[in-house]
């Protein structure tokens, strides 16, 4: 993993020390973590009921804390990038009324998770959050925060343990309290991620097939452009509604049910932009299925080719890339031993993901660094486990 990212136990120590300092208490009772994710292929397909192929990262959000006797909640984030204030205090509604979003913005992810928790009512609690997932970088710090918090609440008052419903509750939290109409991918893989595997997720049936990805000769390199995107901006919801319009023009429930033949037949009835958006989604869903098959066969060249096709489609048809991401992908593709590279996540900045042969990693990093006009951050990653409870020292 990235040389400079703190480990899970370092994050627990940071959160625990802050907890003991602020609350003047002994050690917190509970510690949990949930990972960020990188999507290998299948971008902007989840909210079209299609396939995605993400993996959980070794980068995680940690929550430590303890139950209290009343209904008061205090949450502190150790992450400076989250914005001020980093402490929030509120009371759990006692009459079944809802917890409204407000300020600070970061606390809305927590409030949303409390709101959608599947075994109410909850006790009051104090908690501290620490994370190694970069915020707003397209590695889903938001889902890792939601899922870590849900996992924390499960330690205070267990629910029935259904993992898919847990992911759906966390997705609902992001919809209602953060105002981001995201698909299910991020929360799903943060809950159900498996060490040594990517997950081929069918976002319609919510079934996942683990695809082994532990070849020691292979590296998954994430490059953060360090250009920030804002998913709560207008572009993401606009793409979503363009897809819905396209599906209904084709007489389908979602673009998952549409083929390129359907789209070509309806071409004259669609405006040019809607056509291009739909084409990306339909072809990307197919690419994702083929990519998972290629990975199973160990056909990395085929996989890499599909990654690059995905990037080009996101750039030209879906128009969610940007100059910095295009630069990073072009630079990576110039290195011998690189199979493929693409933007990952919502777009408009954030990260690229590159699949390459392990022995070329140093050369690749140097070359990308040289060619990129900004200052990138690199993470050498391996597919990791989903959310879990941790033992405190
Ligand atoms: P991404 O999920 O790609 O990182 P988002 O814009 O979806 O980007 O989510 C980032 C937001 O999630 C942050 O601006 C912040 O509000 C919240 N967030 C994520 N991690 C933390 C954290 N450790 N502490 C506080 N807020 C966090
Ligand atoms: Mg997010």
Explain how this protein is built.
This protein is of the alpha+beta class and 393 residues long. It is 39% helix and 22% strand. The protein contains 11 helices and 12 strands. It has helices at 8-23, 107-116, 141-156, 163-177, 185-192, 235-249, 260-266, 272-297, 300-316, 323-333, 361-371; strands at residues 30-41, 51-67, 72-77, 87-91, 125-131, 197-202, 207-212, 218-224, 338-344, 351-357, 377-381, 388-390. The strands form 2 sheets. Strands 1, 2, 3, 4, 5, 6, 7 and 12 form an 8-stranded mixed sheet that branches. The protein has a 4-stranded antiparallel sheet with strand order 9-10-8-11. A hairpin with a 6-residue loop joins strand 9 and strand 10 (351-357). Helix 2 crosses helix 3 (141-156), helix 4 (163-177) runs antiparallel to helix 5 (185-192) and helix 10 packs across helix 11 (361-371). The longest helix has 26 residues, at 272-297. It starts with 7 loop residues before the first helix and ends with a strand. The mean pLDDT is 95. The site of magnesium ion (MG) has 4 residues, from helix 3.
